[in-house]
């Protein structure tokens, strides 16, 4: 008989488990300091550990700083603090649905491909969604994964897939029936229907999330939590690669870029090295000194005039950097609020001014569409040609750059093996007050293949900027 586990051993094991969870949260890109980790340990001593949702919210309160971090946190929490594997229900035959060997539900009943089983479970899902009991929906999701989500066994163990469950049950096709069950005869077309539709969407989404969570739990039991966490957690908004950003990421990315644009505007603003009081007013100072025997005891200064500089944004909108161009145009739109004059220029193998598409309140997606349709950014074959783009800019818009102008170039610097026109860029940099180039490619790829980034970097400050986090670092170092 094994020796009983002492209280200190239990607490030590729990502390080690919490430490692994905190490390996983930190590796997901959520900053967690030592003080927050200590607070998380304190949480375990003041709440009921058997109340899983209390534990979830308590740890979230001390580990998270922004609401955008919550989805990644919830995925990790479900991996490190999974639902109990205790038997919770029985099927129609009286057999327990949970509680197999090593805590894993056993495969019982008909073949998962049996349409009768799928129909029976679909009817049960409809009833559960109609009632809206979250706990019951979660337990049903576990049984659905057990019965319908298994794939072919492999040498490494049993595999489970959420798409098999969704294909068998098709919860999205139950919306019309659920609406009919939730609405009375005279509620169609009004506010009650809107509320009912929202309720149905939330319940169906909750079921899908429960299935995803259960599949991740089973996969983690087979392959390990750490391995599953690396693939299951989506990058945070400030870590999304601009070149790979999806349409669903753009809204969160826009919220991230707006405050960064304000900080960038402050950093790029002209700073006159004349102190807070402005230039010395020599005449007034001498006149005042007559009352003190010619000694300028009190100095007088002219009022300081704060001049916001002009900003020229020159961005590549070719297909190879489509995701990055969305970011650059978001940045351009946000910067317009903080500069007296922002002029935006887009190019592929020719250059055109696109400032007119960024009126106050304009939608960035609409601006992108209009630039592609109306702007003269393609003159030949639609492939990036930085040399020609710089030549067109120098020929048509040379006056846009002056001693008060901050120049911001955004692009990957890939020229398709065409002339790079480095001297033209150098001339533009010399005429500007400051110049910076944000490149969405990793620094190790600069100069490889058709990239002229290494040569451009000799005449302009070129910065790797693949995500909003790196943009924030760039702003900090300006």
TrEMBL record:
- InterPro entries given in the database record: UCP010256, Uncharacterised_CoxE, vWFA_dom_sf
Any signal peptide, and if so, which residues? none
Under Pfam families, the record lists:
VWA_CoxE
Descriptive protein name: VWA domain-containing protein
Question: Which species does this protein come from?
Answer: Blastococcus aurantiacus
Ranges where the record places region Disordered: 87-115
Taxonomy of the source species: Bacteria, Bacillati, Actinomycetota, Actinomycetes, Geodermatophilales
Coiled-coil stretches, from where to where? none
């Amino acid at each position: 008989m094994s020796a009983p586990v002492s209280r200190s051993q239990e607490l030590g094991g729990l502390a080690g488990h919490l430490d692994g969870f905190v490390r996983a949260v930190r590796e997901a890109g959520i900053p967690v300091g030592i003080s927050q980790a200590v607070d998380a340990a304190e949480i375990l001593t003041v709440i009921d550990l058997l109340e899983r949702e209390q534990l979830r919210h308590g740890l979230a309160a001390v580990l998270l700083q922004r609401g955008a971090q919550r989805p990644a946190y919830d995925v990790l929490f479900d991996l490190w603090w999974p639902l109990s594997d205790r038997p919770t229900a029985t099927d129609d035959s009286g057999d327990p649905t949970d509680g197999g060997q090593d805590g894993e539900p056993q495969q019982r009943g008909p073949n998962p491909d049996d349409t009768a089983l799928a129909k029976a479970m679909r009817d049960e899902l409809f009833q559960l969604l109609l009632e809206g009991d979250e706990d019951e929906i979660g337990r049903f999701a576990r049984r659905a994964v057990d019965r319908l989500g298994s794939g072919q066994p492999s040498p490494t163990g049993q595999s489970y897939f959420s798409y098999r469950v969704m294909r068998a049950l098709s919860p999205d096709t139950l919306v019309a029936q659920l609406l009919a069950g939730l609405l009375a005869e005279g509620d169609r077309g009004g506010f009650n229907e809107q509320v009912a539709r929202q309720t149905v969407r939330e319940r169906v989404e909750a079921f899908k999330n429960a299935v995803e969570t259960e599949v991740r739990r089973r996969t983690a039991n087979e392959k390990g939590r750490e391995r599953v966490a690396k693939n299951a957690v989506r990058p945070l908004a400030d870590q999304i690669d601009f070149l790979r950003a999806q349409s669903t990421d753009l809204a969160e990315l826009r919220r991230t870029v707006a405050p960064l644009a304000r900080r960038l505007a402050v950093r790029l603003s002209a700073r006159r090295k004349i102190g807070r009081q402005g230039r010395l007013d020599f005449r007034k100072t001498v006149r005042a000194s007559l009352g003190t025997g010619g000694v300028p005891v009190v100095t007088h200064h002219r009022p300081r005039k704060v001049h916001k500089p002009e900003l020229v944004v020159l961005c590549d909108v070719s297909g190879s950097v489509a995701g990055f161009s969305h970011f650059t145009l978001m940045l351009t739109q946000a910067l317009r609020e903080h500069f007296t004059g922002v002029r935006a220029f887009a190019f592929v193998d020719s250059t055109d001014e696109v400032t007119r598409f960024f009126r106050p309140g304009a939608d960035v997606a609409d601006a992108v569409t209009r630039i592609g349709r109306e702007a003269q950014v393609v003159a030949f074959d639609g492939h990036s040609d930085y040399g020609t783009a710089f030549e067109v800019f120098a020929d048509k818009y040379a006056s846009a750059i002056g001693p008060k102008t901050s120049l911001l170039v955004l692009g990957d610097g890939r020229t398709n093996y065409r002339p790079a026109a480095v001297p033209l860029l150098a001339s533009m940099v010399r005429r500007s007050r400051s110049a910076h180039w944000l490149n969405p490619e990793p620094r190790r790829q600069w100069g490889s293949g058709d990239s002229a980034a290494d040569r451009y970097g000799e005449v302009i400050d070129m910065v790797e900027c693949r995500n909003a986090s790196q943009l924030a670092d760039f702003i900090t170092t300006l």
